[in-house]
Task: structure prediction
Amino acid sequence: MNTAFSRVDTQTIHSTALHDNPLGDPVVRSLPVYLPPGYDDDPQRRYPTLYLLSSHGSTGPSLLNWSAWSENIQQQIDRLIASCALAPVIVVLPDMWTRFGSSQFINSAGIGRYEDYLINEIIPFVDATYRTLPDRDHRGVLGRSSGGYGAIVQAMRNPQTFGAVACHSGDLYWEYTCIPHLSKMHQQLEKFGGLDAFIADIPTLRPKGGTFWELIMTVCWAAAFGGNPDAPHGFDLPVDPLTGALNAEVWAQWLTHDPVRMIEQAAYAEALRQMRAIVIDVGAYDEYQLQVGARVMHNKLDALGITHVYDEFLDGHRGTRYRFDTSLPLLAEALT
Result:
């Protein structure tokens, strides 16, 4: 083996947390783990670990795919380490895919127990299998878009597990993020024959155009944030499917999951205060107006005196994986 190069170990996990998940999604999952160059040279050396959460419509293993005019995640990390911008680090790429395109990385009656899967199964498995530094001061979480949302929420909910976080273009301030989608949800459900038909037909619907992607995102949010075990699909719709009007009670339930509201609770603010590094960035021209939520979060962190790195870059929402060039070194340095 040439230890001058990195390697990706792909493990298989049979999840207990995902057993009987309401969507019938697989309980056996692959788990790619990036091991840095030199990992096999020194059997005594241990490494900090970063958990990279993927965006909606993607999953951890797909970050390793070939990418046109760009790098996959292994190539990106290799370049950063080779240039000495990034200290050697283990990077874990969890598969959190669901029929709705994501899990939003939380437990919900409508999708399943994906937070339990991450915290109680994946992390202990990685620490038992690889030479990690197995404590929160050497473990971080990051992601982009829905993965950025998952990263900041996991840091707020599990400060005993994570000691650093990076949220790239995360779903924040849902009046702007979600309401534009919700205003069209009733119309889109009608187009696809209603919620039951849409859920049943997701794999076979063709073409999967813009309307499909808007609706699958909204249904994913509904299942994650509007969980109700007594509802037919385990979640309540945020709108009346006939009139299209917003359901105020369900919408209020959604807002309890919005990080800009979560931080108003002392426990969540204190969790972020414990982070060794917080990175928040967003495109100044984000198509979903996520820069507004990032600014709100930035201002609230400032008001609480919580140290963080904040940046707005001159780009939109898509194709911004290159921003990991900023967060990976910052998190690794804080955790080393």
In short: The mean pLDDT is 97. Strands lie at 7-14, 28-35, 49-53, 90-92, 107-108, 112-113, 139-144, 164-168, 277-283, 309-313.
